[in-house]
Amino acid sequence: MTLHHRFDGPSDAPVVVLGPSLGTTLDLWEPQLPSLTRHWRVLRYDLPGHGGSPTVTGLTMEDLAGMVLALLDLHRLDVVGYAGVSLGGAVGTTLALTAPGHVGSLVLCCTSARFGPPEPWHERAALVRREGMEPVARAAEARWFTPGFAGAAPYLAMLRGADPEGYAACCEALAGFDARDRLGLVEAPTLVIAGAEDLATPPDHGRALAGGIPGAELLVVSEAAHLANAERPDVVTAAVAGHLASPWKTP
Ligand SMILES: O=C(O)CC1=CCC(=O)O1
Questions:
Q1: 6: Cβ contacts below 8 Å, ≥ 6 apart
Q2: What is the β-pairing status of strands 41-45 and 80-85?
Q3: Residues 243, 195: contact at Cβ < 8 Å?
Q4: Which residue, of 57, 97, 147, 176, has the greatest Cβ tally within 10 A?
Q5: pLDDT digits (tens, 9 = 90+) for 166-196
């Protein structure tokens, strides 16, 4: 199975891979695209059961990182930058741990080394299998954005478009994920970004990531909840571009 993916930007530029969060598609990164494609070839992918990727059942975070690694192999990409939001960030952490030679630079946005205890994720998986995406979609706006954010509609549409079985499998990957005792092994220069008002992965999760990954820097973005790159694109785009540029020069 190959994840649905697309490239944007100059074909001879260094590659940065952008990973989406649970319930979103590769379009999550649309606000960053005009800026990032000035200097990078951007590779975006859809999670299984999201956007254009087929559903896969029985997923672990290592499986998801393996699927991204397979994309790198498919396109003969050696060292890439990687930025991911939430579940996409956990995929990046796992990729940096399992294939360190491939990850030249890492941005972990609104994510965690452990997304809480497994039970609520298994309950959410059971809910969508039973009732479809609507109950989760109704609750998502308050989880993803600060009150009054006017741009939520396209992101909620991505969530409503997810396949319940694929979404449930991604919940199960989150349930089984715990990288807390391996953070010290991440070699890639890392920037951690947290939304100051994120209830799903609060700033303490970002602090724990940045505290555990050697040399990692932390940026807490004000007036932003879980999808900080959508809510504060100005700040997040500049931070991602700035971090990727410093340790990872154009050949
Ligand atoms: O939708 C949520 O509950 C927030 C979230 C947790 C992991 C992820 O990717 O999104």
A1: 26, 43, 44
A2: unpaired
A3: no
A4: 97
A5: 999 999 999 999 999 999 999 999 999 999 9
The interface pTM score, or ipTM, of the predicted complex is: 0.97
In the reported structure, the alpha carbon of residue 13 is separated from the centroid of ligand 1 by a whole-number distance in angstroms of: 31
> Ligand 1 centre from 182 Cα, in Å?
22
The rounded distance, in Å, linking the Cα atoms of 155 and 124 is: 19
Take atom 10 of ligand 1 and give the residue whose Cα is closest: 22
Tokens linked to 189 = 């220069």
DSSP 8-state assignment for residue 86: T
pTM score, two decimals?
Answer: 0.97
Q: Parallel, antiparallel, or unpaired: how do β-strands 41-45 and 5-8 relate? A: antiparallel
- Dist. CA 165–CA 154, nearest whole Å: 21
* Among candidate residues 69, 91, 118, the one with its CA nearest the CA of residue 22: 91
23-34 tens-digit pLDDT: 999 999 999 999
Fill in the amino acid letter for 242: G
> What distance in angstroms lies between residue 141's CA and the mean position of ligand 1's atoms?
11
